[in-house]
Design brief:
Blueprint lengths: L1 H15 L2 H16 L13 H33 L1 H6 L5 H33 L2 E4 L4 E4 L2 H25 L3 H19 L10 H4 L6 H4 L17 H23 L4 H16 L1 H4 L8 H8 L20 H27 L5
Antiparallel strand pairs: 1-2
Helix pairs in contact: 1-5, 2-3, 2-5, 2-6, 2-7, 3-5, 3-10, 3-11, 5-6, 5-7, 5-10, 5-14, 6-7, 10-11, 10-14
Length: about 350
């Protein structure tokens, strides 16, 4: 276990230092936050465009980040000879492969956490219909949006300052800075409503729903107006990204990073369109064999399930997690078999 943690930690640190990693992270979060600015249609529900766009960015950019991390940490180390020195410690080859996947999973988890915070901020900042005694109409939350975008700029400035004065890695500083800034804005948004009224100052008069509905008023100092139903949906996307991390790690034992990324992109398209492409195919046919090998990614993409007040049950999340763990185990076993006889000298 000490070797597993050492290799996984090294993979995580090297991955977040790469320019492509923090650029994809920064672009994904910025694109999610800018959706409310260019929103011109509600799509039958307040905040749905921001929510679906944020989950889409999490899936696409997360897949690219996981695969690029796996490709660089496995195939590049094999080409540079670093893997040979690690395996000469000695470290068993299955331990090396599984540790690399664990490092990729840590990077993916950090990405998903920051992206989830940006997603919830973007959904809150979107236009929502507010019915109150002193206001009736659509209201946005420009304060949270400005603070979140400012947090991205602050993360870049802090990373540049740490690199200039302390010679710290710029990429790693920005990677952590983006996560900290979005989580901080998300937590701070609970102190005010969409109209910019701070709860510690206005008390229960700033509450939109209960005070307007004539219910019993009560002292209010912290009220996060966040859609917590999106958390299970984001967790399912994270499970899907773990599958791509395992697939990318397995393929990287024999392929280059570009080829692995192309194969994973094809798996993403095929997995999301599996019901259409493989519907009605027999088990002994070619389509049936492909549908049995490829993971069904629709099990991890349930944006419509949380629309119009819907919820994803905890039982389904547990089942999807077990399915993802099973698929990851199969891919990692295949990767260990492919890496067993690979010349790393």
């Amino acid at each position: 276990m000490r070797a597993v943690w050492a290799i996984a930690r090294t993979t995580f640190i090297e991955a977040i230092q790469q320019p492509v990693a923090f650029l994809m992270y920064l672009f994904s979060v910025a694109l999610t936050l800018l959706v409310p600015v260019f929103q011109f249609h509600r799509f039958s529900e307040d905040g749905r465009l921001a929510r679906d766009s944020g989950l889409s960015c999490m899936l696409v950019f997360g897949m690219a980040l996981a695969v690029c991390t796996a490709g660089r940490s496995v195939s590049k180390e094999i080409a540079d000879g670093t893997a040979a020195s690690v395996l000469g410690k000695p470290v068993p080859r299955p331990v090396f492969v599984c540790s690399k996947w664990l490092g990729c999973a840590l990077v993916t988890a950090m990405f998903c956490l920051g992206q989830l915070a940006a997603l919830m901020i973007a959904e809150r900042a979107s236009a929502h219909y507010v019915l109150r005694e002193d206001f009736n109409g659509y209201a946005t939350d420009p304060i949270s949006l400005i603070l979140a975008l400012g947090g991205l700029a602050l993360a870049l400035l802090a990373g540049a300052a740490r690199h200039f004065f302390g010679r710290h890695r710029f990429g790693a500083s920005v990677f952590f800075g983006v996560l900290y800034s979005q989580v901080a804005v998300l937590l701070f948004s609970g102190f005010y409503n969409r109209l910019g009224q701070f709860y510690p100052v206005h008390g229960e008069a700033a509450c939109c729903e209960h005070h307007a509905a004539g219910e019993a008023a009560h002292a209010l100092f912290y009220h996060p107006e966040l859609n917590l139903r999106v958390i299970p949906a984001a967790l399912l996307v994270f499970f899907g990204l773990l599958v791509f991390a395992a697939l990318g790690t397995a393929l990287s034992t024999r392929m280059r990073t570009g080829t692995v990324l192309a194969v994973c992109a094809g798996v993403l398209f095929t997995g999301l369109a599996g019901d259409t492409l493989f519907n009605g195919s027999s088990l002994l046919s070619f389509r049936g064999a492909v549908s049995g090998v490829l993971p069904d990614l629709q099990n991890f993409w349930l944006c419509d399930a949380i629309a119009h007040g819907g919820r994803i049950s905890p039982g389904y999340v547990w089942l999807a997690g077990g399915y993802a763990l099973t698929v990851c185990t199969v891919f990692l076993l295949a990767g260990c078999m492919a890496f067993q006889n690979r010349d790393v000298g």
